[in-house]
From TrEMBL:
Function, as annotated: Ubiquitin ligase protein which is a component of the N-end rule pathway. Recognizes and binds to proteins bearing specific N-terminal residues that are destabilizing according to the N-end rule, leading to their ubiquitination and subsequent degradation.
A GO cellular component entry from the record: cytoplasm
Name of the protein in question: E3 ubiquitin-protein ligase
Domain of life: Eukaryota
Keyword annotations of the record: Metal-binding, Transferase, Ubl conjugation pathway, Zinc, Zinc-finger
Organism lineage string: Eukaryota, Metazoa, Ecdysozoa, Nematoda, Chromadorea
Pathway: Protein modification; protein ubiquitination
One Gene Ontology term of the molecular function aspect: ubiquitin protein ligase activity
Family designation: Belongs to the E3 ubiquitin-protein ligase UBR1-like family.
Coiled coil: none
Length: 159
């Protein structure tokens, strides 16, 4: 039976083992691929910080495991850096928030207002969709999470 490539046919085992047909069509549905997407962060970093600082996320790791093949993106509110989690590895991607002069304020040392940079957000969306991580320079094993945590604290030293 020919099916157009835009349709998926789900097959199940037949309960009639005496017949020669062990598989039969069960459901035929249009194929719909959904690209990986990220939530759009607020335009102003101060809004993000005020809303989520001191809030604990109990569902983040479970959500990453169930919905993203153990991959996840997180924003460090103490540094404005994007953290990438992939299985048992993590990395610092960079930041999508820049000041009025299009400069990073890593670890929020200068205290300047930070705004969402659309170009960097597109780069992040591209890396997330393709799982390529072209802007990640070092992956850290979560078996040695102290090294990764110290790197987040000192990320202003890594350029």
């Amino acid at each position: 039976m020919y099916r157009h490539p835009d349709f998926v046919t789900v097959l199940i085992k037949s309960t009639d083992f005496k017949s020669l047909r062990f598989l039969q069509p069960c459901v035929s549905q249009p194929l719909a691929w959904k690209p990986r997407r990220i939530l759009r962060p607020p335009t102003n970093f101060e809004d993000l910080f005020a809303r989520y600082y001191h809030r604990e996320c109990m569902k983040c790791s479970k959500h990453a495991e169930c919905c993203s093949s153990s991959s996840g993106l997180f924003i460090s509110l103490t540094s404005s850096m994007i953290l990438v989690s992939r299985g048992r590895q993590s990395a610092i991607w960079g930041t999508v928030y820049l000041d009025a002069h299009k400069e990073e304020d890593r670890n929020l040392k200068r205290g300047k207002p930070l705004y969402l940079c659309e170009t960097r957000l597109r780069w992040l969306e591209y890396d997330w969709a393709d799982q390529e991580w072209q802007r990640v320079y070092q992956w850290y094993s979560m078996f040695h999470s102290n090294v990764f945590i110290n790197s987040i604290r000192d990320c202003h030293l890594h350029q």
